[in-house]
Amino acid sequence: MEREARIRDLFPLVRRIARRIRTVVPGAELDDLVGDGCIGLIRAVDHFDPLRGTSLEHYARRLILGAMLNGLRRMDPVSERSRRLVRDGENLRYRMAVERGAVPTLVEVERARPGYLRARTVAHRVSPLSLDAGLPEDESLPLDWRGDPADILSRRVEREEFEAIVDALPERPRRLIREHYYAERSLREIGQRMGFSPQRASQMHLTTIARLRALLHAATG
Questions:
Q1: Domain boundaries, given as residue ranges, for the chain
Q2: Is 219:158 a contact under the CB 8 Å cutoff?
Q3: 6 in Cβ contact with 41 (< 8 Å)
Q4: Which position among 94, 157, 180, 211 has the lowest Cβ density within 10 Å, counted as fewest Cβ atoms?
Q5: Per residue in 45-70, pLDDT tens?
Q6: Stated pTM of the model
């Protein structure tokens, strides 16, 4: 009876911690958090040792929080390795930006942290979008009521990755790709504007496309 009384007395603590986590992780289900937290609470009551010099509430708080976080990790479709790669890559990108005074391209970060681009794409692609919460920071969607928001966001991430790879090309190939595919100019016109023959423009186009395919393959695995 004493064990059950302790569990009942500390159950409000489970709900408080669950609500706090849900404000940080909007996609988490409150009932799931409470369920995992109750497992942590029971373990705390069963294994509490007053001789360790801490209160039951303090000990239970740690086990409840740990059980909830473990539950969130089990539901996360992105592996911990991918999350770690993204964190390391973003930290490196920030340090490089501070050192040079300009934000480095994603391809530069990929060279220093192989696997970063792939992990970043996976993390964006599989992260669920909540219909009750706003989009991630700096994200917006066009007014396409027929499209799936997750698919739209996934395509946007892929486009951003491709543009970052294009930005990392040398000046002439980068200009050719942008003028041909973004400004819709012919290779002949681009050759004239850049000062070389249509044949040279066509050759550079084929070489650049092959290079882009290799870079995309390296970035996405």
A1: 2-75, 78-131+144-167
A2: no
A3: no
A4: 94
A5: 998 888 888 888 888 999 999 888 88
A6: 0.41
- Give the separation between CA 27 and CA 145, rounded to whole angstroms: 22
Backbone angles phi, psi at 136, to 5 degrees: -55, 160
User: Alpha-carbon distance 168 to 201, whole Å?
Assistant: 19
State the pLDDT at residue 63. 92
Asked if 180 and 205 count as a contact pair (C-beta separation under 8 A), the reply is yes
Which CATH number among 3.40.190.10, 1.10.10.60, 3.40.50.720, 1.10.1740.10 corresponds to the domain 2-75?
1.10.1740.10
Tokens 């029971």 belong to: 42
Q: Give SS3 for 54.
A: coil
Looking at beta carbons, which pairs linking 59-65 to residues 24 or more positions away fall under 8 Å? Answer: 60/10, 60/13, 61/13, 61/17, 64/13, 64/14, 64/17, 64/37, 64/40, 65/17, 65/21, 65/37, 65/40
Cα separation of 215 and 174, whole Å?
A: 14
The residue assigned the tokens 């928001």 is 149
Alpha helices in the chain (DSSP H): 2-24, 30-47, 56-75, 80-100, 106-112, 116-126, 149-167, 171-177, 187-194, 198-220
pLDDT digits (tens, 9 = 90+) for 95-104: 888 787 777 8
Per-residue tokens: 111: 């060279």
Judged by DSSP in three states, 102 sits in coil
Residues of the chain with pLDDT under 70: 1, 26-27, 75-79, 122, 124-158, 216-221
